Amino acid sequence: MNKFIAIVGSNSSKSTNRELLKYMQRHFKSQAEIELVEIKGLPIFKKSANKYVPQTARNIAKKIEAADGVIIATPEYDHSIPAVLSSALAWLSYGIHPFVDKPVMITGASYGSLGSSRAQAQLRQILDSPELKARIMPSSEFLLGHSLQAFDDNDNLKDIEITEQLNGLFKDFLQFVNISKQLNNANVVNKQQAEQFLWDKD
Amino acid sequence: MKLVGIAGSIADQSYNRTLLNFIAKHFEGLVEIEVLNINDVPMFSQDDDQTNSDVIQNLSKKISAADGVIIATPEHNHSVPAALKNVIEWLSYEIHPFDGKPVMIVGDSYHTQGSSRAQLHLRQILEAPGVNAIVLPGNEFLLGKVKEAFDENGDLKDQGTVDFLQTTLQNFIKFAKVINLISKTNDYDDEDLSAKTGTDTTIQGIDMNDDNWLDLAAQKVNAVEGKTYVKLDSGLLTVDQLNYFLKTMPVELTYVDENNQFLYYNKAVSPEKMLAKRVPAQVGDSLDKVHPKIDRVIEHVKQVINSLRTGKTDLVSMAVPGKDETKHHIMHYYKAMHDEDGDYKGVNEWAVDIKPIVDQYLQATGQKLVKDPEAKIDATSGASKKSAPEEIKVDATSSASKH
């Protein structure tokens, strides 16, 4: 069975993105093992002369290295991903490169109707950067709008259409992960390039 | 024009900070730029709201008071650094200092891109409703290959680049002037004349609009009076002595605190004889209670207080007609008060008839006044327009100062 790391893109104790990932963890447990990872507590990304990376970030990197894929659930703050997620991704590409060629599924939830659409678009560009070089599942978008009203008393998604969309996307992601395992010819070079990326002065 | 610069980096060394410092130094004659520091801003979290911390309040105040903001952004992972995004999150959560604020984006990077992708993300971020900054369109300043761009003094080496930077900065200055004209009208709307918010010195539990507020409030805080000594920063007086002193000031003084509560006036003469009438029952009142409920008046009061609170101006002065202009020329002055940390503490208002002073001067120097045939102002009511700051259009007939 595939093992996925699910990153909660928020440090808020009340996060519908965490709720979404917990739901996916339960709902898809027969298809994949999903482990939730929190990024709360990571310091704001800062470059240093000795390229220091906090131990928490290193631990997350190890989990991602070992996983078959990563699911990210992002809120939208000011048309973009939260600073805490942006910071985590910077740490996870600073001298360590767990995301290179790693299959990633992007999801997101928001209180309003847009479901973090702009944040997800920026997140794609971020994950595409040479120092992250993740393999993002193409042509797929899961936007959960009105997320406060989206779950029932048992924390399951209420809307059947949305649930079916998520089922379909998750199935696709499983296939995408399998295909990705074969798309590894450039992996060595990609890793090298990411490692050679110059995180010089700001 | 006053601008603030934010380098979107908390790294110990930053070329973007160098760029901002260069802009501040090189274009000193054109514009005044203060470069702000974002190093100690905590990570944004809804669970732990630190909007009221000094570091965030300080950034907010500087941005609010500025005519515009220049942001210099590095590029991390095709986007803006988390540290910069983090600051914007705090400044778009409970407070919104960027609202309507003109912003110019610049950026540099090690390679050819010069932060191109980060700048586009930053535009989208600043455009978000919670931020609502107004970003200068076009005029992209992307400084690539930054390692070779500066000399040892931190100056840009390439004259072409400096010229282009000057053009974009001049465009921004024009842009900021126009944007500020548009957004200005609403600046003062939030000024709460009902004094509901309160401040650390507001006396709780007593209705501020009670006619006996002074006695009730004094009792509540065990206020000293009579022969008790009060130590001031450069003197020692009893409360009685303070009263003798204030009552004989040659001006009518009024104290309004930062919460817009009218706390004191120096009752020198009977209300009927005052230049600006005050009665004891008004002491303690919120400012909306001491002004007539006329929209135009309320708007002027808000404008005056807000321009003092935000530091747009330190002193507002206006002439208030009403008495015979051949015998009197009554001026009202509103001066911002600040504590040791520079935080706004309220308004010191004084009213004074300057006609006797002018007369005395003319008599002592053997001169007399003659009309200036070229004067463009109406001498009977227009003098106030000249002395009031441009943005505060004082309507002399229903002036803000009439409490």
Tell me about this structure:
The complex is a heterodimer of chains A (202) and B (403). Chain A is built from six helices and six strands; from the N terminus they run βαβαβαβαββαα. Chain A is α/β, with parallel strands linked by helices and 202 residues long. Chain A has a single domain (2-196), classed as Flavodoxin domain (Rossmann fold), CATH 3.40.50. In chain A, strands 1, 2, 3, 4, 5 and 6 form a six-stranded parallel beta sheet that branches. The longest helix of chain A has 23 residues, at 160-182. Chain B has helices spanning 15-26, 54-65, 82-90, 116-127, 159-184, 213-220, 239-247, 287-290, 295-309, 355-365, 383-387; strands spanning 2-7, 32-36, 68-72, 102-108, 134-135, 141-143, 229-232, 235-238, 252-257, 262-265, 315-319, 330-338, 344-353. In chain B, the strands form three sheets. In chain B, strands 1, 2, 3, 4, 5 and 6 form a six-stranded parallel beta sheet that branches. In chain B, helix 1 links the parallel strand 1 and strand 2 (32-36). Residues 379-403 of chain B have low confidence and may be disordered. The interface between A and B is large, with 38 and 42 residues. Chain B: Pfam families: FMN_red, PAS_10. Chain B: Residues 1-146 form the NADPH-dependent FMN reductase-like domain. Chain B: This is Flavoprotein.
Keywords:
heterodimer; A: 202 residues; alpha/beta; six-stranded parallel β-sheet; 6 helices; 6 strands; globular; B: 403 residues; Rossmann fold; 2 domains; five-stranded antiparallel β-sheet
Oligomer: heterodimer
Q: Helical stretch count of chain A?
A: 6
What number of domains of chain A? 1
Instruction: Report the order of strands and helices of chain B.
Output: EHEHEHEHEEHHEEHEEHHEEEHH
State the helical fraction of chain A.
25-40%
Question: How does the overall form of chain A come out from the CA principal axes?
Answer: globular
Q: Distance N terminus to C terminus of chain A?
A: 42 Å
Quick check: average pLDDT of chain B? 88
User: What's the total count of β strands of chain A?
Assistant: 6
